[in-house]
Specification:
302 residues, four-stranded parallel beta sheet
Length: 302
């Protein structure tokens, strides 16, 4: 087995190279072939992953954030090549589905020796296919907050949940708390009016650790949603602490529909948060593709 390590020096924390000593130490004296490549441009991770997936016989590890993981997943989609995650982003949310994020000791060793599991992917369309999402996609106040948090990270170096919270409070100051969205699930319109947010989940965490759907699973062949009604600021402030911890199930004004095919449509151009990367769309369609991506689950600490 060959090993490819992709280092994204521009990931959120700008510390992707911190894993280099651990990588070199692990392979010292071993016969396994490994190589290290630094990304050179915005789509380089996807291109590298697709190139090496076509070759076959590789395990690929990405040192970067959730945007890097998304690129890697899109690069290996449809191939057997597995991807491992060495988190160096500002949020590092997807890896929280795989291991205890507070315990990163020996992560290179535990990932290289980890088992491969299959996870679902959300296939995304506007007029045509434009990619896959393996964690969370959202529209509404949280997408606006994610956009703001990216600006805050770039300007002040603040990362994680704190950056997201600061971005959220900036949204409140801007009074962007309701969004006109038509939501269709498996052919049935379930909402045609204003919402505060609409999150479509495969993984459990986003925004540095927020939990929109506590019961979601990335291998059940289903997209789980969280929809929050557009209400006043009292509702926002009462729900936010619960939303952070995934304790908002049962709160009036919040629902958790699910399905295999979902569309979000608006008359307005809205920000869409796809694993920390922000795009703008009036509509987006998605469908679940079961067990499409091979992901390496790190071994537990001994």
């Amino acid at each position: 087995m060959k090993h490819l390590f992709i280092i994204n020096p521009m990931s959120g924390s700008k510390k992707a190279a911190k894993f280099l000593p651990e990588i070199k130490k692990y392979f010292e004296g071993r016969e396994d072939e490994y190589s290290i490549v630094y990304t050179q441009h915005a789509t380089h991770i996807k291109e590298l992953c697709e190139e090496y997936a076509k070759k076959g016989g590789y395990r690929i590890y990405v040192a970067g954030g959730d945007g890097s993981v998304n690129q890697a997943a899109n690069g290996v989609a449809g191939y057997d090549t597995p991807i491992g995650i060495l988190p160096t982003g500002s949020g590092n949310d997807f890896i929280k589905n795989l291991t205890d994020y507070t315990k990163l000791k020996d992560l290179v060793k535990r990932t290289v020796e980890g088992d491969v599991i299959k996870v679902d992917a959300i296939k995304l369309y506007d007029e045509e296919l434009f990619g896959y999402c393996i964690n969370i996609l959202s529209m509404g106040v949280d997408a606006e907050a994610a956009y703001n948090s990216t600006q805050i990270t770039r300007k002040y170096g603040i990362t994680g949940m704190l950056a997201y919270l600061l971005g959220f409070f900036r949204v409140l100051r801007q009074k962007k708390t309701k969004f006109d969205v038509k939501i269709t699930i498996d052919g049935q319109v379930i909402n045609d009016g204003y919402v505060m947010l609409a999150a479509c989940t495969n993984g459990k965490y986003y925004g540095g650790g927020f939990i929109p759907v506590p019961h979601t699973s990335f291998d059940d062949g289903i997209i789980d949603m969280c929809i929050a009604e557009a209400r006043g600021l009292d509702f926002v402030f009462s729900v936010l602490p619960k939303y952070m911890k995934g304790k908002h199930v049962g709160v009036e004004g919040i629902t958790f529909p699910k399905g295999k095919n979902i569309s979000l449509e608006s008359k307005d151009m809205l920000k869409v948060n796809i694993e920390g990367e922000i795009i703008e769309r009036r509509s987006i369609r998605m469908e679940i593709v079961p067990r499409l991506i091979n992901v390496i689950k790190p071994k537990d600490l001994e």
